[in-house]
Every structure is written in C-alpha cells, then in structure tokens.
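User: Assemble these into one structure.

Assistant: Restating your components, then the assembled model:
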Amino acid sequence: MASKEQMTSLERVAAALTFGQPDRVPAAPLVCGATHRIAGLTYGEWSQCTDIEAMVRGHVDALDLIGHDGVVMLVDLSIEAHAFGCEIKFPESNTAHPNYDDPFIKSHKDYKKIQKINPRKTQRMKGVIELTAGLSKEIGKTHAIVGFVYGSIGVLSMLRGPEAFFMDLMEHPDEVMEAVQVVDEVLVEYAKAQLEAGAHSICYDHLYASQSILSKELWEKFEGPSVKKVTDVVHKAGALVSFHNCGNGIYFDMTEKWGKPHAVSHAYVADDVDSWEEHKAKWGKKIGTIGWIPPGPVAMLGTPEEIEEECKAEIDIFAPGAGFVLATGCEFGPNAPLRNAKRIVEAAKKYGVYK
Amino acid sequence: MATKEKEQELIRRLQDAVIHYKVAEAKKIAEETVASGADAYTVTMEGLAGGMEVVSEKFDSHEYFVPETLLCAKALYAALDVLKPHIKVQAGGTRGQVVLGVMQGDVHDLGKNIIKAIFEASGWTVHDLGRDVPLQKFVEEQLKTDSDIVMLSAMMTTSMVGIKKLIPMIKEKNPKVKIMIGGAPITEKTVEEYGADTTADNAPNALKEAMKMLDTLRRGKAA
C-alpha cells in the first residue's frame, strides 16, 4: 500500500540526488521519445523539434498518465551533430540518425570544417532549449527537468561515422583534438542555455567512457577536459550534474575526476566492481545512481510481475541511504508499452517509501 | 615454393602485424607471401586468423578496445585483399557460412563490422548485408547462399522488434538454420521470447557460439 506523498517530485529528486531524505525513491523511467505517441506526432515529426507546443504537451500529459518524477530533454543523439551541419534522416517510426552514407566529415582532413555555431539559434538545439523553457513554465516548480548534452566525442562520431572516428582517435589525434575544442565551446553554451531555460540539471552523455568502447586513457585524453568545461558551468549555476552512460563497465573514477557528478544514469556497473551490491558499496554513497531497469527485456518485454520484481530488487539494493532514482538503464523504448512506465512508478511507490 | 621455415616466418610476421595494427606492414608481408610461393591459405589461417585470435583475447581481457580492434581489422583486410585471390582451398569448406546484417531501421553497424572481420579471419564465409536491412532480404540471402547461420544485430528497441517478425520468416523457409541475435537491448530473455538460438555480447563470444552451432548442425547432418 503506497503511503501519502509528502514531497513534490522536484523536491524528491533533489533530495535523492543530494543524499538527503526523500519521502520515497523517485521514479523517472526516461520517457523521452515515447512521448511522441502522447503528443500526437509521428516519431519522425517529434524528432524534428518543430512543433514545440505539441512536444511540451506530450511530456506534460505523459507525466499526468504515468506519474514519474522527472523529464529528460533527450530527443536523440544527433541533435548537436545536426546543428554542426550533419545531414539527418528522420524515419517515421525509428530514431533519427545521421546519413552515414554521406558523412559530414569524410576524411580526417575535414575536421577543420567544424565551425562554432550558436546553439540558441541553430536548428534542433534551439528546439530543445525552447522545449526546456516550455516545460519549465508548465512543470518547473513541481518536477525535475534534466537538460541533455551529448558529449564532444560522441558528437564528432556522429559527424564522421563511429567506425572511422574511432580509428581517427589513434591515427589522426591532432585533427580530432582541434575539433573537440570547437565542439566544447558550443556544448558549454548549450548547457548554459538549457539552464537559463529552466533545466534543474544537465545530463552529459559520455557514452564512450566505458569498457564497451574506449580505453580509460584514450577516453580521458579526448573527453576528460570537455566534461570539465561543461560541468563547471553546471556546478557554477548551482544545478545538479548528471551523466548518462549505457555502456558496460563505466569509468566512474574518470567521471568523478572530471565531472564531480551528483548522479549517473547507467545500465551496468562501474568497471572496478563486479556486482550491483559492490557498486552500491563503492560508489553509491558519493555518486547517485539513476537506473538500471533493462529497457528491452524488462521495460519493454517484461510481464507486470517481472517489472515489479526487477524494480523491487533494485530498490532493495540501492534505496538505503538515498542517492537513487528508479529508472530504465537507457531511454524507455519509444515503442514500448507506456503502461510499463507506470508500473515502474507504481513499484517505486509500493517498495521505495522511506520510513 | 617457399620453404617451411620461410612460411613460418611469414606467418609469425603477419600475426605480429595484425596484433600491432601495422596496416602497411601487413600488406607488404602478404605480397611477400604471394611472391615467395608460400601457401596463401595456410598463411591466411595461421597468420591472419592466428593474429585475430590474439586480438580477440586482448579485447576480451580489456587490453584492447574498439579503436584498437578496428585497426587490427584494417591490417587484416589489407593482407587478406592480397592473399584471397591466391587461396586455393575454399575457406567455406572447412568452416561455415553466415548471413550477417543490421535490422531494418537501424544504422549501428560497428559491432557487426567487428564480427565480420573476426569471422572472416577465422575462415568463415560472411555474406554481409550491411545496415538498415529489409527483413525479406535476410530470408532471400539465406536461401540463396544456404548459409548455416543468420546473425541479426539491433541496437534499439525500435529495430529489435523486427527480429520477432523475421525469425519465423527465416525458419519457415529453412527450419534447420541457426539464428544468433545481438546488440544492446538483446538478452537471453529476448532469445527465448523471439525464438532465436543464441546471443553473444561481443565478437569473440559470437565466434565461439557460432562454432558450437556449426558443430551441432554438422553432427546432425552426419547422424
């Protein structure tokens, strides 16, 4: 039986991520692209960020239907690359992505094509800022609004194509590094703009900071300082610093060193531990966890009982001492049953109440 | 005709070039192999496949990551392009054939490309359909090539759902074919739910799983 809620969603998320005393475990199942179905737009239309009013309505109505505690301003990972000049495809029912048959950066010599742009005025970055402002007006006092920035080397991999980009990191490091500096400047402005529009936190996606992709040394060389530049702005604004990384074996030590985060949204444990219990013991007292319900097998394909069981198990390990938001380990499937997102919230209310 | 010693030397140097991603060196050794008259198939299998086996181990133990592995694959292909026309024994005769591709609506082909390199280096014939592949194309390619295994990759839940539709389409035409699925949202539960045969979380494990399935298939044929 769920007890009466004592806090607003915003207070609850803030208390959880600052290791305070939330009334219960907050739930934020990363319902982003899925809101297109509530907004009455196709996924392709929604991803183009042209009908901001409908996008705001989609998020607000999703909160009403699902009851989660916070929203994330993720649209897709090609937002920033698009603004830098990358051609983007917008499939009607799939995630928008660069046209990898004709990448913006065709050879290592093209990195110099990357020019500074103004995110407040450019394409979908502008759209995300407007979406943030619209949501701030509607729910900014009651719910957590988390801005979203795809990290500098993630953006460059979109512009180049990941395979060629990863090889460039080793074969043409100087050219890549010059482009990283330009992207960093833009991302700093983008984070500032989202904060000014009303985001309570900025989530930096450092996807490649995991054993799934890059060595720790290579990641640090190319993105460590970028993380610092962006997160310094967020810390200075008094907002919460969060990260997202759905890779396996995440470099929490590097994340801590360069970003001093309040929380990390993740699907797998840190690279220096072997289990969730160990993760909680090693990292859970200083860096909050937003996670880690598997989006495919559980949030999308799970039965109601399986979802409840998974949520309970995660709450049992991570709720003690706060620092935990129950969420999917990556974006809630844009095509997943929305009722399942509500089941996650219900589980947080049922099992996550702090006595 | 190269002596046994010379062949061994070429194999050792080729392994080293692949393991340490020396692309130009790998090509040069392959040319030297052809010029020396050494057996291209032996040098390919022991030099390139042997080298990639070490790369797989380094990837598994987190000594190598994606960039290093891609560069090893680049060195591998630089040599393989030279050696392939001179291989007299068909690699497909000793190993199996796979149809490989990324599901419709999905353009994440990095994992697929690493798998391709490791399989080709190990003597498999890989029919690579690329990314964003229409479902019917997998069915047609399996029938056309009579491949033993179909390997499907999906990195998003939106593309993963296509696997559920595709597996019955493939099995209807050829019930014996084995199906391996992989990608970020895929787990054992997805394998069970969608009726696939197996999954693997990285390329070296995919190769191990494929070897097991091929063994099962061949024992079935022999029985």
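Strands of chain A lie at 70-72, 88-89, 97-98, 144-150, 201-205, 240-245, 263-266, 288-293, 324-328.
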